[in-house]
Design brief:
260 residues, alpha+beta, Ribosomal Protein S5, domain 2, 2 domains, 6-stranded mixed beta sheet, 3-stranded antiparallel beta sheet, globular
Length: 260
Amino acid sequence: MLTFKSPAKLNIFLKVVGKRDNYHLINSRFIRYDKLFDEIIFEKKDKQKSGFEMVGNFDCKLENNTIFKAYKYLCEYAKDRKIESFFSDYLLKVNKNIPTGAGLGGGSSNAATFLLAVDELLNLKLKQKDFYAIGEKIGADVNFFISKYKSANVSGIGEKIEEFSDDEVEFKLNFVDIHANTSKVYSAFREHFFDKIDIKLANDMMKKTTNELLKSFDAKTLNDLLNPLLVCYPQIKKYMKEEMYLSGSGSTFFEAVKNG
């Protein structure tokens, strides 16, 4: 049995700066949050059986799962038959600890961890640009997790990753038991708040450390998706308190408990 940790992420800030086709362009600071992680486990099958098998507590069909997408795209990209052969001998188990619809990037992290693990186990020797090419097809946050950066400025639709020298900050997470639909939240932003985009502020935030950001701005200024999240899920407001900040499109809030 081979086990790999699949960490969560936090968005210290998230600013929408425009649109590209049906996608929203963002400026954001991503940090990897290693204290919360899923486990990706490769387990030997009792007997050889062809085809990709995956076991876990998922809230979607297999074909919509980010790990399955990663598997399909990796097979197409690498064109290496030993990938399919490997999964005749091994099945995949996923222990989910990162809540879905919580703005913590669990699905994207799972896909990235899977890709990196298979590359390591099978010695595929893919380069980072290869992983990024696959990651872009799967989802917006995948390439951040592929980068392995602790902190990064993320832009475009999530495909542009630039490592950032940041503060060491300890966080406490506050979970709200609501599955926030990312598409729904972005639709609410486009309908009610798109005219309030501030590109200069978004660019300025890219230069500030996490401590500077948390000391300088309130939750609604840091994350453009907080107001539309409350439009979609007004009941979340009762869980909020001062100095709590939203990650991604929600519904997890975080607070700094010790500044470095």
